[in-house]
Amino acid sequence: MYDDINTNISEEYKKYLKSHRRKKSAIRISRIILLIFIFVLWEIAAQKEWIDPFIMSQPSRILETLITMGKDGSLFIHTGVTVYETIVGFVIGTILGTLIAIALWWSDFLASVLDPYLVVLNALPKTALGPIILVWIGGTTKSIIVMALLFSIVVTIINVYTSFRSCDEDKIKLLKTFGANKKQILRKVVLPSGITSIISTLKINVGLSLVGVIVGEFLVSKAGLGYLIIYGGQVFKMDLVMTSVIILAIVAAVLYLSVLWIEKRVLKMM
Amino acid sequence: MDKVVEVIDVSMNYHTLEGETEAIRKLNFDIMNGEFVSIVGPSGCGKSTLLSLISGILTPTSGKVLINGKKVEGPSASVGYMLQKDHLFEWRNIMKNITIGLEIQGKLNKENQEFVEQLLKEYGLYEFRNHYPRQLSGGMRQRVALIRTLATKPNILLLDEPFSALDYQTKIAISEEVWLILKKEKKTAILVTHDLAEAISMSDRIIVLTKRPAEIKSMHQINLSCDCKTPITCREAPEFRIYFNKIWKELDVHV
């Protein structure tokens, strides 16, 4: 649609584009400099013994740990376990949550009955359920996935259901005038108009699932980044803790960006 | 002429926790085949409710509506409904928006597909069939909405203030166009509107309703002396103002 803009641009517009680009690259460079600055300051502070590297760790030791872990493969095993559990919990949470939201939309009675339960479940810190799940399911990957699911499912149900409810009444009326039944109304208008909010729920969910997984690993596991963090803390290996936290930050960023990428794809398809 | 719509002793009450609202009280009127009838009345007098009753998405509290002599018991394919806004689905292209009614009624076959294509060609939308609604102007979108209604081949069209969301110029142009299309396709039409000038210029007959609960206040057969009758030329007929003033007085508007 806007292809014709670039073919014939004025000097003024060129200038505007240039200043816009310059501003953007200034922001990007500043971000990188900030990151380098923090790590360099940290390293210097540790070497000059302004801080105690045993407690605060230091970038060079983190790098060392990273290399050792990479060599013996434990880096990939633990990261893989955490990512796997997060993705499984996230996918199940989203699908199950959406299905439940559809059920609530379908039956006003069911929605009214369950409303207070959802409100309480949403407000309840899911961490508190950890020990219960541990006892019920046992200290396996399964219970960690259930934790991830618990963290994301309630938010999914509430967000998706709200978006279904906010579907334009007149659009539904339009389909009714053609004689549409409830299933057709769901498929032709309620679901497609809710898809954008389902996708934006994904972005929240992926973060929540990761929280669930880490909490689960704190409680039960024998592998995963959460396990490494809790283990490192217990044996006072701060290098291991810091390294795991940094990997976790990278994992979180990559997961978020993947969802963003999926979102772009899906919205383009529509 | 045959009666296509018969409204017989129709009453409609709404129930809410705050109480009961009587929207329509014992309405009786007929609409003939090929006729263009407008319904005017004060705001909130139940005009839209009346259309919903005729279309079958609401059931009257008492009385009945007959379409082609058969009692209405739910939406039927012989009645098309056009709403205030176009309500085109942003995620569907123009072609898919137009065929949604056929899709729902399970009639999306080759024959109907060709019929839709022919409509699109006839009314200048064929080259936009793969466009999305956001790429079209307000007037064009309303034209798409009309073709979406015509696609299921109804013989009666219910128009619920279909031009009220448009700006003045577009409104005049589109109402002219819609009128010509409806006459050409030989459809019976019932228009609900706030706009008296629009009603007089388009209709063969105008039904004036009282304020709630709606009853018939008066009916006017519109006879304008102009050679080639279309909504725009009608506005210049000498009788136009006379009808306008008469109905205006009956509406009894106090601000």
TrEMBL record, chain A:
A Pfam family reported for this protein in Swiss-Prot or TrEMBL: BPD_transp_1
Subcellular location: Cell membrane
Residue span(s) of domain ABC transmembrane type-1: 79-259
Membrane topology: Multi-pass membrane protein
InterPro entries: MetI-like, MetI-like_sf
GO biological process, one term: transmembrane transport
Gene3D superfamilies noted in UniProt: MetI-like
GO cellular component, one term: plasma membrane
Transmembrane segments: 25-45, 87-106, 118-138, 144-164, 208-228, 240-262
This protein's UniProt keywords: Cell membrane, Membrane, Transmembrane, Transmembrane helix, Transport
Protein family: Belongs to the binding-protein-dependent transport system permease family.
Matches recorded under PANTHER family: ABC TRANSPORTER PERMEASE, ALKANE SULFONATE ABC TRANSPORTER-RELATED, MEMBRANE SUBUNIT
Record protein name field: NitT/TauT family transport system permease protein
Automatic annotation (TrEMBL), chain B:
UniProt entry keywords in alphabetical sequence: ATP-binding, Nucleotide-binding, Transport
Domain ABC transporter intervals: 5-236
SMART domains in alphabetical order: AAA (SM00382)
Keyword Transport part of the UniProt annotation: yes
UniProt-listed SUPFAM superfamilies: P-loop containing nucleoside triphosphate hydrolases (SSF52540)
Keyword ATP-binding: yes
CDD domains according to UniProt: ABC_NrtD_SsuB_transporters (cd03293)
GO molecular function: ATP binding; ATP hydrolysis activity
Protein name per UniProt: NitT/TauT family transport system ATP-binding protein
